[in-house]
Please model this.
Amino acid sequence: MSLTIQEVEQIARLARLELTDEEKARYREQLSAILDHVAQLQRLDTASIPPTASIFSGDSHLRRDEPRPGLPREELLKNAPEQEKGQFKIPPVFE
Amino acid sequence: MFSLTEAQKLLQSGEISSRELVSACLERISALEGTIHAFLHLDAEGALKQADAADAKLAGLRKTGLPVSESAGLLGIPMAIKDVLTVEGMPCTCGSKILEGYIPPFTATVVKKLQAAGVIVLGKTNTDEFAMGSSTENSAYGVTRNPWDTSRVPGGSSGGSAAAVAAGFAPAALGSDTGGSVRQPASFCGVTGLKPTYGRASRYGLVAYGSSLDCVGAFGRSAADVAAVFSVYNGRDPLDATTQDVPAAKIVLETETGSSLAGIRIGVPKEYFLAGIQPEVEEKVRAAIQKMEDLGAEIREVSLPHTEYALPVYYLIAPAEASANLARFDGVRYGPRVSGETMWDVFYKTRGEKFGDEVTRRIMLGTYALSAGYYDAFYGQAQKARTLIKRDFEQVFREVDAVACPVAPTTAFKIGSHGDDPLAMYLEDIFTLPANLAGVPGLAFPVGFDAAGLPVGMQLMGRHFNEAALLKIAHIYQQATDWHLARPRFAVEQ
Model:
């Protein structure tokens, strides 16, 4: 199957990736080839087969919901590219 | 350079000190790292300081007069850690520009357990970006070179860890294995590498790639080395809800001559000996299977009929999970930021600029497979096919105790030889992907050399939680053979 440039742009939008025109053309070709390859799965009759999301499902080991100390705020903010008043700082969300 | 189990004995008896051992590793690194490039971060000073502390503790233990081996554990043993596992205070880049400068404020549970047992972390090793690749060529910080032939790749994605052990930089190392990233580099570098059962060891502090597939694995020179490391870091962790409630494995492999494989049934899956694999790989693996038969094992031909679907299943499921996991890298909380007018600009620009090609490709592939209108045909169908692959293994393990096959279709390939063809690179993983999809353990170890002098690896796969069976088979094989003792030429010269 062959993806269109518009489809590549739509995928990149969903994934929040800015691509150059050269990248769009290259990924269009490469992703189309990979999708051709994975299309062989359509040959399998899986009508009666349940999906596997994880190998040991059904028995999740959630710990008790008890408050406990987390990492200190200053430690977590140390890696932030920008911060202010103990918060992560970002540019405006709305234009 | 000593193996881990040799070093353990010499440290405990006081014949060598941890400072001597760590210094020997650092000397080797300073002589050869310029060529190999196994490390992204090295903490020489910290390692020496910890070595002195370990020596003081060892001296104390010897003074008690009690057997030191019982309490010393891995005290004073240096290890290298793949740069997708966090170690508090050490940079963690995952081989990516998007985490350049990130210093994690916490340590991965598996590393914490090793440190508690006395392990000294030498540094962080090179990896394909976010563990996506089979050669370390996808690292944003340059390729690692194979110690057996520096014009070739060490395999990947844990290529730095495998090369570090092969070059004698460290007696053991940790890696991660989502589709073969411990086993394939172990094979290419002629060392022993274990991918445990899914859920056997904690993923807390392992930067997530494919969460239903990711496993922390270990490299050493022999099955005994790997068993010693794995025995320390496996087990349930309250900080990882997918770790399973089974008793932690403690595997001790004794050195005894004349051990036999009598009573052990080994299956040879015909789907793993395809036309197109390098003839010497098939020849050496078949010779190793013959050797195991000579040692008493019962060999049977078996079938894993859905093997051919593992590649398409993996390259839908892993990218789908990756596309969700890597959403967190957005230039807000860690790593560099590419500035923009709005928050959205920051996301698009930071991710567009800082992710490398392979990571971008997999994020896009996964995003597509999960998107409205394609979910059932791609991701849903892959999850169902995954069930068929899992059932193949359940069926086979009713008949045999382990399955033996090649690790990869070829020995180490030349740097740059796969060019810009992602599918050609994906085909390197065809024999390692099924174990991740089925969650079963897999072990890779050397069984010979090709005509170019490059190591050939064999893979054993086993039942869930039965890493011990695989390590024991490999150990008995290694007691009777010496492929695992061979060293790259420059390693012998020193």
